[in-house]
Amino acid sequence: MKNNWLLLLVFGLFFFVAKDASAQTHRRSTGKHRTTTPKKKSKESSNSDFWREQVWYGGNVQLGFSGGNTYSQFIIGLTPMMGFKIKDTPFSVGPRIGYTYVSLKGLGSDGQNHRVSLPSYTTSAFTRLKFLQQFFLHAEYELEWKKQAFIDSRSLLVVDRDGSVLTDKVQRDNLYVGAGYNSGGYEIMVLYNFNVPENSLEQPFSFRGGFTWNF
Predict the structure, then answer these.
(1) Quick check: pTM over 0.85?
(2) What is the largest CA-CA distance in the chain?
(3) Whose CB among 75, 79, 142, 199 lies 3.0–4.6 Å from 124's, allowing a Cys bridge?
(4) For 135-156, what is each residue's pLDDT tens digit?
């Protein structure tokens, strides 16, 4: 899978920095409280602190319209996610799942206009680096199962003898890297997908808007 080396590099760098920062914080904390006897916490209290302090929730809403000389498409999607903050670092990691519906209308190879529905399902893992309180960097590896339409070299929908647009169900991987802004529980971000297939109507840049709680 192309560009997987970049994914490993990004995630590896994030975790390396997070681990180093955590180790330094631990050393400073140990030095300051070397003579202090730590208080024991109950298991229930520790679990409560973890979910309250280190877990955040969110979701992205995708709504858009794009078009060209031979086609137009309407896109709507919903993607919930959960993040786990790496203690004493600005990093967090987590899973993300989603559903997207695309309604594509375009000129077919038979010279007629056609409309076709193209749903997709995704599951992914992401990591974030938060900085300056309201900004963050975002890297994400995604597996996608989708229905796609065949496009010819003229950017026309391929139509069979029965007048139906030729489609296929495929699985592919996506690699997103970008940045975002989060304020008051609302966020926006711009991502670049390094794995957009050639001969596709998709654009490599995508815009996401959504919300978070406890990020």
Answers:
(1) no
(2) 83
(3) 142
(4) 999 999 999 999 989 988 888 9
